Amino acid sequence: FQHGRPQRARARARGAGNHHLGDRAMSSGLGDVGEGKLPAMCEDYVAKSNAGDVEACICMFDKEAVYGSSTVGGHVGVDAIGTMMRGFFAKCPNVHWEVEPGGYKMADETTVEFDFVRTGVPNAEGRDTRQRGTERVRYTRDSSSGEFRIAQVSVEVHDTQAL
């Protein structure tokens, strides 16, 4: 553990040692289909988050997904991610992400990246904050259903201001 986060999950969240996720996603043959569909899926993920529909968000993850955030730490597997998300949304019921129109961009063949402004996350004193950050969402195609699933989320908060 380092800073309350499992080392393995922390390394994965930063992108180190994620070759197996990238290889799995790329071997799924996302190609042009992914590039056309994934930004819209990512926008839908954020819309569900803004609506507080945690269970719908959790259903978007691959069972072996990895989630890493400078806010909530590292989590491996959909069950651990679901537990984290339920706790986060219970603690932050008014959380809201703002993303500029057209802000969901393909970072590579399988990954969507966007900058956000997030409100509704209290600081240690309980005051609401405004946070600026970047989120990267990597997708894979489920081998049995053919549906796109979230394989990895990496969130980095760059700046936090108390409101």
Written account of the structure:
This is SnoaL-like domain-containing protein. InterPro entries: NTF2-like_dom_sf, SnoaL-like. Strands 1, 2, 3, 4, 5, 6 and 7 form a seven-stranded mixed β-sheet that branches. The chain is built from five helices and seven strands, in the order H-H-H-H-E-E-H-E-E-E-E-E. By secondary structure, the protein is α+β, with helices and mostly antiparallel strands. A hairpin with a 6-residue loop joins strand 6 and strand 7. It has a single domain, classed as Roll (Nuclear Transport Factor 2, Chain: A), CATH 3.10.450.50. Helices cover 34% and strands 35% of the residues. The termini are far apart. The protein is globular.
CATH topology name: Nuclear Transport Factor 2, Chain: A
The succession of helices and strands, N to C, reads HHHHEEHEEEEE
Number of strands: 7
- The tally of domains stands at 1
Instruction: Supply the number of helical segments.
Output: 5
Structural class: alpha+beta
Could you list the spans in which at least 5 consecutive residues all have pLDDT below 50? Answer: 1-29
Corresponding CATH architecture:
Roll
How is the main sheet built?
7 strands, mixed
User: Which CATH class is shown?
Assistant: Alpha Beta
Q: What proportion of the residues form beta strands (DSSP E)?
A: 25-35%
The global form is globular
**C-alpha termini separation:** 32 Å
* Rounded Rg: 15 Å
Helix content: 25-40%
Estimate the mean pLDDT confidence: 84
Protein name: SnoaL-like domain-containing protein
Pfam families: SnoaL_2
Organism: Hemiselmis tepida
InterPro entries: NTF2-like_dom_sf, SnoaL-like
